[in-house]
Amino acid sequence: MEKKQGTILRFALIFIGIACGFLLVLAQIIRLQTVERQHWLSLAANQEPLEVVIPPRRGNIYDAEGRLLAGSLPRYMLTWDSRVEALRGKNDTLFYNNIDSIAVGLSRIFRDKSAAAYKEQFISAYKRRDGRMKIQPAPVSYTDMKRVKALPLFRRNKYTSGLIIEESHKRIKPFGNLASRTIGGIYGETGAGNSGLEKRFNKELAGEPGLSERRRVAGKREDVTIEEPQNGCDIITTIDANLQDLTETMLRRQIEAIEGEWGCCILMEVGTGEVKAICNLDRTSSGEYREMVNHAVMRYEPGSTFKTVSMMAALDDGKVNFASDTFRVYKDGWSYQDTRIRDAHPADTVYHVRDAMAVSSNIALAKIVTQSYDKKAQKFTERVRRIGICDSLPCEIPGTQMTKLADPKDMSTLAKMSYGYSVEMSPLQILTFYNGIANGGKMISPIIVKELQRNGKTVQRFESKVLKQSLCKPSTLAEIQECLHAVVWDNELGTASVLKWQGKVVRRKAQSPLVHIAGKTGTAQIFENGHYTTKHHRIAFVGYFPEEKPLYSCICVIHHPHLYGAYDAGANCGLVVRQIAEHTIAYTGITDSEELELPYDSIQKPDIMGGRQRNVSRAAKGADLKLPKTTEEWVVVENMQQRGVQVSKDVMPDVRGMAAMDAVFAVEQTGLQVQVRGKGKVWRQSLPAGTKTEGLQGLQVVLDLR
Questions:
Q1: pLDDT tens by residue, 23-51
Q2: Other CB atoms closer than 10 Å to residue 678's CB: what's the count?
């Protein structure tokens, strides 16, 4: 009996124990679900894999010849993880055996503090197990990153050394301010384009981000790549860096001379619509000139450059007979309704149509338009719209403005409109119209971007569009072209011809002995404080060359020259276009066929690739060829002559003509990375020769072979 009672007692105690345990578990569950709920939820969230976005590399922007206009320069943030367990093995010998070398190396590389200071910083972090410590407060260059990785201990992987390298990209422009308003810029915080091509093609340039997942690897959190980023597309523009530099130089020289408020200049290929150069210069408060506003795509009153539009409309409508009609002008002006119209070159005389355009007579144009469209002012604007200058102008530059042409409210407004007031056009739109005249009457859209490429392969190609198959009748076009010829080549009347003093020619304006130019001057008073002022003007010249077979069109506009009397559009803007035309013809090699003939030997000798001089001489000797002796280490052979190539760590060398292997070696001496495309020898390099490479280390240079 006693034994049975003892058994029951033990089972009762066990049951009570189990019940108490169950109640304790239940109580803990309730506690976890209520009191400690938020704590454990946050802890669980921290333990979940964390997705991290991997930013792609932003695409580069190149000129038409493959020279880099804007690119992403890699920068590297260096940190050190003091918690790496591998450093603490064998009584911390790995760390302490290398810390002196690391400290000395970092002091020599960055020159910001002593080796002792670096050593103290590392040891302090190591003892406290601080986690990640910044070796440098800001990202460093590719060259410095490679030098740090070469230090003892840091040569090992990050799981052993603790060195962590995070790559980012900085936007750079090797040509500095050249065409900067067209290329555009990016926001520093987001990296998104904020102007120019950077803004217009932001999505294509930005690429697609990748994805990584932050996981625990060997007791530490590491980013494991799940999806690789897709780098942005590269943009191949129509801009020619050499012509762009030439255009800016000529504009800058003249605008500084006459102290203009701002100026712009555009150079375009007639047949393709490709913009080879587009320059905008604004005067700063300090008196310097910089690219600040893209005036080329903003509309202004065109002044007398609009007279060609007015004359084209009247001639094409049969309102004027080019051969026989004449128009009387007056020295003291001509009153029309409530407006007094005056000429810039006052005279009491009679002009034929050609002469009226050559001398740019406001009175003659006002008479032509008001008599042709008397009491039907709307008919004039309708006719002008049919020419096509008011149609939408496709352009890759954000903010491009369309022509503003409202129906005149009265005949007085119509008279002013005939010579370029009460109408607004952008310089790019004006040039597009004159380019159509040079192109046989076909007006095509300007283009600034030729291709989008990814990894050297074309993703999208751009071509100009036909805006107007024919601006006017062929007979009208021929008459307009004769007028534009007279503007430059009529030495008695032409506003862009010559300057005379006491009957003698003392200076040529747009006239050039090297290339024939045809075009039109334009001068407009500036509307300020509710009225037009005779003190402030905007001057322009727009034309094309060579006149016999037009290849290029060009416009130059300068706003408000401060120099007294500098309102002669032909002498200032015409001169700029003339200088651009002369240098463009020389640069592109447009000349007589006799001058293009090569010496017999130059086309009979085999081609020799450039490189190290000793290798080139050996190749020439093997082919039984004699080359002039030279002491240069690196050479390029051109027409059996050796050109020396300077190879240094600070300047981008000219490797055109070199074999791929030698060219890559020469470029890598500067710390730049190299991408080779094609076969043969180098014929084009994306970074211009002579560019200072300090701070550019790690930038990728493209070498095209053929």
A1: 787 777 777 777 777 766 665 555 555 66
A2: 14
Nearest to 476 by CA among 679, 312, 272: 312
pLDDT tens-digit map of 85-111: 888 877 788 889 999 999 999 999 999
Contacts of 531 (CB under 8 A, 6+ apart): none
At 191, give phi and psi (nearest 5°). 80, 5
The alpha carbon of residue 482 and the mean position of all alpha carbons in its chain are separated, in whole angstroms, by 37
If DSSP codes are grouped into helix, strand and coil, which group holds residue 535? strand
Three state DSSP letters for 56-109: CCCCCEECCCCCEEEEEEEEEEEEEECCCHHHHHHHHHHHHHHHHHHHHHHHHH
Residue 73 contacts residue 177 (beta carbons within 8 Å): no
Tokens standing for residue 442 = 């076909």
- Whether residue 74 is preceded by a cis peptide bond, meaning omega within 30 degrees of 0, is no
Per-residue tokens: 393: 């102008």
Q: What is the token pair recorded at 381?
A: 């604007």
Residue 72 has pLDDT above 70, yes or no: yes
Best CA proximity match to 477, nearest among 420, 552, 550:
550
State the Cα–Cα distance between residues 415 and 7, nearest whole angstrom: 124
- Residues 256, 281: contact at Cβ < 8 Å? no
Quick one: how far is CA 164 from the chain centroid? 35
Cα gap 29→21, rounded to integer Å: 12
Of 622, 633, 621, which is closest to residue 665 (Cα–Cα)?
A: 633
How far is C-alpha 236 from the chain's CA centre? 10
Residue given tokens 């210069």 in the structure block: 281
For the segment 579-594, the average pLDDT, to the nearest whole number, is 76
Q: What whole-number distance in Å separates Cα of residue 624 and Cα of residue 672?
A: 37
Name the pTM for this structure: 0.77
What 3-state DSSP class applies to 397? coil
Yes or no: say if 119 and 99 are a contact pair by the CB < 8 Å rule.
yes
DSSP classification of residue 659: B
Beta bridge partners of 404: 424
d(CA 364, CA 559): 26
Task: Give, for 243, the enclosing helix (H) or strand (E).
Answer: helix 241-258
Dihedral sign for Cα atoms in the order 273, 279, 391, 310: negative
Residue 597 has pLDDT above 50, yes or no: no
CB atoms within 10 A of CB 298: 16
Q: Are 681 and 702 in contact (CB under 8 A)?
A: no
Residue 60: phi, psi to the nearest 5? Answer: -90, 160
The two structure tokens encoding residue 646: 């300077």
SS3 state at 165? strand
Minimum mean pLDDT range among 574-578, 600-604, 649-653, 701-705: 600-604
What is the C-alpha separation between 635 and 642, in angstroms, rounded?
6
Residue 517's nearest CA partner among 598, 466, 575 is: 575
